Amino acid sequence: MVDGLNQAAGLQPENGDQYMTSPTSDGSWQVDIRTSSGAGQDPNVSHLKGIYKYNPATGQYQQMDPMTGEFN
């Protein structure tokens, strides 16, 4: 499922990426992507990279707008 999102959204996984997934009521999955990698970052702290809603049946995804909380 995560590989499908990465392909659909054109995401490039990096070392330190963490994927938290949870099913939604409409058959999609919410995927929160966090990372603990990067120059000058504390490896004990993860930083939010993005929140996505992905439907594996259709291959469609939406990314959450961090300002509004809406998926676009």
Short overview:
By secondary structure, the chain is mainly beta.
Describe the structure in your own words:
This protein is mostly beta strands and 72 residues long. It has one helix and four strands. It has one helix spanning 2-9; strands at 17-23, 29-35, 47-55, 60-63. It has a four-stranded antiparallel sheet. Strand 3 and strand 4 form a beta hairpin.
List keywords for this structure.
single chain, 72 residues, mainly beta, four-stranded antiparallel sheet
**Unreliable runs:** none
Largest sheet: 4 strands, antiparallel
Would you report the number of β strands? 4
The whole-number mean of residue pLDDT values reads 92
Give the SSE layout:
Elements lengths: L1 H8 L7 E7 L5 E7 L11 E9 L4 E4 L9
Antiparallel strand pairs: 1-2, 2-3, 3-4
